[in-house]
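Ticket 4471: requesting a sanity check on a complex prediction with F0G. Repro inputs:
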Amino acid sequence: ARAWRGLIEEYRDRLPVTDATPVVTLLEGGTPLLPAGRLSQLTGCEVFLKVEGANPTGSFKDRGMTVAISKAAEDGAKAVICASTGNTSASAAAYAVRAGMTCAVLVPAGKIAMGKLAQALVHGARLLQVDGNFDDCLELAQKLAVDYPVALVNSVNKYRLQGQKTAAFEIVDALGDAPDVHCLPVGNAGNISAYWMGYKEYAAADVASKTPRMLGFQASGAAPFVKGEPVLKPQTIATAIRIGNPASWDLAVAARDESGGAIASVTDRQILAAYRLLAREEGVFVEPASAASVAGLLQASEQGGVTPGTRVVCTVTGNGLKDPDWAISGAPAPTTIKVDAHSAASELGLT
Ligand code: F0G
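Returned structure tokens:
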């Protein structure tokens, strides 16, 4: 056994890097593909969770960022910028530190989770809260990158999706073939596009014998793909996917249609139920947006949209510690006791 070297070194021959590319890495990737017993029982499928919260900054964004920042470094960039619902900014801020670059982030004011805000700040990013939503932030970031000396590292940067496709490689490498169905949350729609790219690439190279059906899930208040057009005022408690005008629209539609899949919506209530189920019955703490993949699988299973006996992978995109409010609210307040074994035992119902 040898140590994991980060995804650029692990998948170098399938990524747009050369010997001239300075590799900027936090040793991202190599995340767990975890058998999910309870979800398998509930659906009759063989369900796995791709636990992307195990990446260095706690989300799948690190996969794209290692490639995007390495290529920016190769091009001589001194500064990067991104718009974000929180995870992209956390990742960009950390990788910019590794590269010795400055990082500017534009986030929707009051609409990003506290843990993600903390990450951008602790890594020294210049953080601007924009009086608008994510879609406004992205438009602004794109304008700034055109007019000023700063490289854009949102997923409209083609290197981001190249890095993110490696999650599909890891899944095939672990299972020995592609799964039958792949479920994931959809926001700006980069990730579903990247997975599809990865699965297609492995099938074309005969590493996998097939490609999965891609099932994407949006929050019902922020579901432009379901509506068939942009949503002007997206609303959901899953702030990571509170996006009304996805940048990778055409790529995501192609992933959906070429794979024989679908993009559907789940309510915030379904998202929170899946969030609690993951924590209490699978031992996996994710952020609310991540639970959309699992809420979607449960919904598809109820509607007969997934065949029992098939192999399903759900990507859970981000770590639950980023947004702890949803874990704390709804839980009973902890009891305070004296330093006394008897009171502890009686509170715990052991007596
Ligand atoms: N899950 C999480 C935890 C996310 O942070 C995001 C996107 C998604 C799912 C959706 O992925 O955009 O590729 O369809 N977060 C971006 C951000 C928008 O700024 O961190 P997508």
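Notes from triage: The chain has a mean pLDDT of 97. Leaving this open until the requester confirms.
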